[in-house]
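Hey everyone, long-time lurker, first post.

I ran two proteins through the pipeline my lab uses and got sequence/structure pairs for each. Pasting them in order. The first:
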Amino acid sequence: MEEIEKDWRGGVFLCMAKSSLEADILESKLKSEGIPCIKKYKSVSFLEAALGSSTTFPLDIYVPENALEDAQNIILAVPLEECEPIDFEDDDT
């Protein structure tokens, strides 16, 4: 199994996204909460990443060490059972 780098370019490992789309969603959520992040492509050449042909390759996401705990809490999935149901039948218009 491949060893994950804990530190990279001034950031610490947060998680591995399965695709570029998933990484973009995580990046957007983190940035909206004020947490910068860096995406590191795995097993992809620079040219493939630049041309966008790396959409199905995994990516590691790194954040500043002092924001790691907040970032982990932000990307934590919430089970649907814990969400309050929405009544779509009640329309005020």
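...and the second, right after it:
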Amino acid sequence: MTGPKPPSDAEEWLSAADCAARTGLTVKALRIYERQGLINPPRSRKGWRRYGRQSSRGSIASSS
């Protein structure tokens, strides 16, 4: 299974906390969804999860 397409350069990256706040979920819920394979956020070179504004909204909303 491949992960979501990374946002374009013009699109803003969101942290897990920002993504959780915008979707109404908790960061813990995002981690659980990731462990279950429901979402697969791309990672930065340092290993930080990076959520795209549009991609997170669609994939997470449909998972909850």
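Reply from user beta_strand_b:
Welcome! Quick read of the second one: Residues 13 and 52 are 5 Å apart (CA to CA). The domain at 13-63 is CATH 1.10.1660.10 (Multidrug-efflux Transporter Regulator; Chain: A; Domain 2).
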